[in-house]
Amino acid sequence: MTEGVLLTARQLEWRAGERTILGPLDLDVRRGECLAVVGSNGAGKTTLLRLLTGLLRPSGGELRYGDRPYAALSRRELARRIAYVPQIRPSRVPLKVEEVVLLGRYPHLSRLQIAPRAADFAAVEDALGVVGIAGLKGRAVDSLSGGERQAVYIAAALAQRSDLLVLDEPTLHLDARHQHDLASLLLRLKGGAERTVVLATHDLNLASLLGDRLLALVAGVPLACGPPAEIVKPDLLDCLFQARFEIVRGGERPVTVLDLGA
Which of 132, 204, 219, 241 has the most neighbouring CB atoms within 10 Å? Predict the structure, then answer.
């Protein structure tokens, strides 16, 4: 394994019947980085995340976590290493906030353990504090706003105390204020504890703000991978989204925006 690389994919593919949804794809996820996966609907972003978390089995190629192939890791071992916040979750959750966050400790419970330990409750308190929702811990999840719910699920992922945090469209369906709050939270997470983050998003501003690198997918294959300044360019975005983009100048720095006049 290359030094500084947490996760590797080589010739990774996933097929549905005869149709290839993703790949072939080679990827190194570096320790401590935030990798933002961008692309249009159907580009394969969620499929890639589900492969990286072990929820899907590759149709071809290999995934390795550190020096170990995924095939050598149990589901519980993967869950200790990788925390996942999916895009789609149940509409009703008849639990309190603290109970949902405590579910993040499940991978750490031993087979003979019938109740959480003091260390599990400490991890929950720590996660609630980091996310800034300690005051909500006794509230019913069903009574919360969309932004507050998203913060709860991120806290549950943090309670896993995994090395890798994977987020699928974390700002989807959130209003502007909650998008701002969540982006601020993710910036704080990125800046501390040397946590590695992989996120998929349609939001190019969020991807550019958080991503050390952007992976651009088109029809399941990589178009480009590099720092935001190399990816967020009109010509590349035209190919990525099949829409015209332009550079707008006049502020502190040029901004790439959708060309609505095209």
Answer: 204
